[in-house]
């Protein structure tokens, strides 16, 4: 070995970031097996995915939970489920991230209760609760309460953690879902920073914490960002985040300790850009996106979780998650990345791009402040409207071929992929998981101390009403055996529920010249029907990912249809009730995996009501399920490969005309 080689092998390497995969499905025991297997493969932290009933405060047997249990994450109904989820995993030695927002205080209460049982000191707990309700109103839709009481719960969890679990990050300001909803880099920067400002101002002004404690609050705020395919811009965005956060914490909040001003963030790279067509290409996309958050030392992520290559097809298998984990490990351990300082310092191009993003983000922050702050901008619907418009521009650019996506709108000739051949190419949750979870829930209720539960729930309701910190009462309710649905019902009784603005305009945009042929078809068929063609866009169940529904509703309006779109979280009964007012087509958007159960219920209710309008369904729907839906009467099924929205609207117009002609023939 030469002297140079000896020096090279002696270079001190930085500790790598935390390796995570976002995981959880079916039941707590099934998810526990998955977590322990991933940890054995070298994963160094957990990132918990919860199912939609858990995220929105319902038990697994609630009518709104039908078809949703264990689909997009693990079902957690009570402390027994949480015990099973972390069986054999010592919480005092684990860094756990929980993607939970509206019910974040409850899931943290369950986590603390299990930690107490394990004998893990609360002060030793490390991890993160997302606890960012603001982005739920803008993009993800898993909110329950209005902004006022929701932010009170956010504040309660923050103050609890600062006092009792100081190593825990009580809030993860999440711009990830903003980019998934179409946010530009400037919007992602400004909306996330405006959220952090809104929350920190509220905590500071609450009178519940002194200056030293508030400095700890600021130091405990972390972020969860997105990284897309525009590698240079994404890297510059992260450096802009670092600079802007340092400036905000120093100048607005007078934080003098540089460690408490540090921009600390985790990341999941972009899932929006993963394609159903030629899905093997997604492996390269994931790698490129990861580079923008690990290469620049001064803006490097503290934790990285990567999606699987086949997420546009369905739920990934353990092998698919392992593939993404290995990508991180190879980058961290086989390259020399962690042996050097920031390799982009001094780059003229990077500095120029960072400066531009900073300036534009500051201007947007000023605009949000002019609206009265981030909460007022949400309640008015303005920020949501801007996101819907931004996403519409992105989709239109793909349709026109201005934004190239390999395998989608260019280079579409392809050999069959052996990676997607045969059965078992994606994970399919057990159809028995929901029934088994409900049976366990019934048994849990029967075996617990009902009197203790009722006392704990009464104390919880009293805390909600009085304004006392919700965490002590939530932890006692968890230990008493209360359920997720009971916790949610107690707070719903006090705070009520909320429906956020949809962001969909009530009139057509006039600047889409490529819509002329489609508008002509809409006019022709409307004349034939004797009225303006009317489309009902419905989102049944608890799925709050409304981007697709919003884009269909927006484009249908642009094309000249009458559109009924009332936002997320409708029951099948709600949808059919709206259809009774007279619609020509019902479009269901379901991305949670509950498409079979939800669609079948809508079809059955329509039959009972004597409604004959064609039904179309959109979502991440495997081919076998799509064929089953068509056999049962669905006119068309659209999946991520159907990126041309004009073609979808034209197809819907055709289905309406054929249904009209068929009805006319049978009269």
Features:
667 residues; alpha/beta; TIM Barrel; Rossmann fold; five-stranded parallel beta sheet; 26 helices; 51% helix; 9% strand
Q: How many beta-strand elements? A: 15
Q: What's the rounded overall pLDDT mean?
A: 94
The CATH superfamily label of the domain at 131-295 and 304-420 reads Methylmalonyl-CoA mutase
The termini sit apart by 91 Å
In the CATH scheme, the class of the domain at 131-295 and 304-420 would be Alpha Beta
Query: Segments where pLDDT lies below 50 for 5+ residues?
Result: none
How much of the sequence lies in strands comes to 5-15%
Please compute the radius of gyration using only Cα atoms: 25 Å
CATH topology of the domain at 131-295 and 304-420: TIM Barrel
For the largest beta sheet, what order do the strands appear in spatially? 1-10-9-8-7
The number of distinct helices, counting runs of at least 4 residues, comes to 26
Helix content: 40-55%
Based on secondary structure, the structural category is: alpha/beta
Main sheet summary? 5 strands, parallel
Question: If classified by CATH, what would the architecture of the domain at 131-295 and 304-420 be?
Answer: Alpha-Beta Barrel
